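step=encode ok
step=design start
structure_in=
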């Protein structure tokens, strides 16, 4: 799914499942293979679903009735019912994140944010947080797709990837 917000910011994502009732009510469902988060981290887990809810709201004009995370390994279920005011606030958050990304792109200042997960990372040798030096960033114009580039949006897993 895709939506363009005022100001040209384009949002895109792939929903695992979208249920639509005969009444027009929508439910967004996302499946997770990992463990369900502790209660203190549920908000962070719902970020992705709020993103999808924002896109649906902006494309269809309908606030989803329910956001649902299903943790397959444990059979845990996390439900959340957003409202229009919350999605408007979330849209401001997404805009602020995008503005921060644009500032980082313009300045080249991409600060490392060390965490417990750094122990799993294979890029410590080039990470400033570990004394490394990041490789130079490409110029923004070099990141644009050329006319002969191919954008693949979905691939059947049984199809071999060939040139």
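sequence_out=
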């Amino acid at each position: 799914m895709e939506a363009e917000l005022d100001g040209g910011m384009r949002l895109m994502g792939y929903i695992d499942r979208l249920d639509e009732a005969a009444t027009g009510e929508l439910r967004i469902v996302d499946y997770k293979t990992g463990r369900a988060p502790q209660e203190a981290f549920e908000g962070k887990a719902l970020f992705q679903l709020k993103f999808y809810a924002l896109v649906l709201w902006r494309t269809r004009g309908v606030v989803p009735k329910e956001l649902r995370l299903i943790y397959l390994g444990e059979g845990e279920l996390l439900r959340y019912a957003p409202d229009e005011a919350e999605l408007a606030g979330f849209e401001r958050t997404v805009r602020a994140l995008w503005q921060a990304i644009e500032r980082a792109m313009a300045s080249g200042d991409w600060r490392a944010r060390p965490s417990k997960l750094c122990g799993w990372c294979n890029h410590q040798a080039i990470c400033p947080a570990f004394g490394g030096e990041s490789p130079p960033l490409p110029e923004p114009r070099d990141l644009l797709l050329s006319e002969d580039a191919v954008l693949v949006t979905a691939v059947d897993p049984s199809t071999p990837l060939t040139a």
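step=design ok
step=annotate ok -> Confidence is low (pLDDT under 50) at residues 148-163.
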